[in-house]
Each structure stands twice: as structure tokens, then as C-alpha cells.
Amino acid sequence: MPRFEGFVPGRFPLDAIGAGGFRFADMSHKGSIIATPAGIRIWPVTRFSEVTIESLQPVLDEAGSIDFLLIGTGADIAFIPPALRDPLKQAGIAVEGMATGAAARTYNVLVGEDRRVAAALIAIE
């Protein structure tokens, strides 16, 4: 299976999660990812405390094609603070935080329904 080298254009379901990474589009990647309608890219975040509005800029850049952002917060659920929630809301994007496994499954369902969704997913072991 080829390694993921930073960005793959297109919309793909996630085939597997865990072992510190993700499988999608016949590729694998160790580490966190952001999946938007434009494609999947490396996300240099390893824990929820590192999530900033700046780290979510790829989502804001595509705000016109995203209604809903799922943040996979790692192994545990974390509250999405106003510093993240408010700028996304101003851009027209609703946000929900949940454990990464649940976020990835929900993302796959919404992509399958052709919904305007993005996911920022922190890798889990």
C-alpha cells in the first residue's frame, strides 16, 4: 500500500483507523488528517490541546463547500471551546467534537450521503 505524501485531491471514505493513523484511497498515513471536500491532507496535530483555529485553516478555506465539521478529539471526547466554535460558526460551519473513532464513522456516513462535511481527525493507537 502506498504511503500518503501530504495531500490527495478528492473525496474519500476512511477505510480504517487506528495504529496511529488512517487508510483511505488505497493509501495509508501515520498521524492526524484533515478531510475536506477538496481532499485529504496531513494535519500536524497530535493531541486536542494543539487544535487551534489556525490549524483548522484548510476547513475555513473551503467554508463555502462545508456545512459541518467533525473534530476527532483522540481517544477521549473533548469540549470544543468558543475560540474554535465561534470562528467556524461565523464562517457558516457547525462543529461537533467526538472521539476519533466515532468521528471517522460519522464522517463516512455523511460522505456516503453526499453531505457537505469535513473532518479533522487526531490519530489514535
From TrEMBL:
InterPro entries: MTH938-like_sf, NDUFAF3/AAMDC. SUPFAM superfamilies: MTH938-like. Gene3D superfamilies: MTH938-like. Pfam families: DUF498. PANTHER family: NADH DEHYDROGENASE [UBIQUINONE] 1 ALPHA SUBCOMPLEX ASSEMBLY FACTOR 3, NUCLEAR PROTEIN E3-3. This is Uncharacterized conserved protein, contains Mth938-like domain. It comes from Bosea thiooxidans.
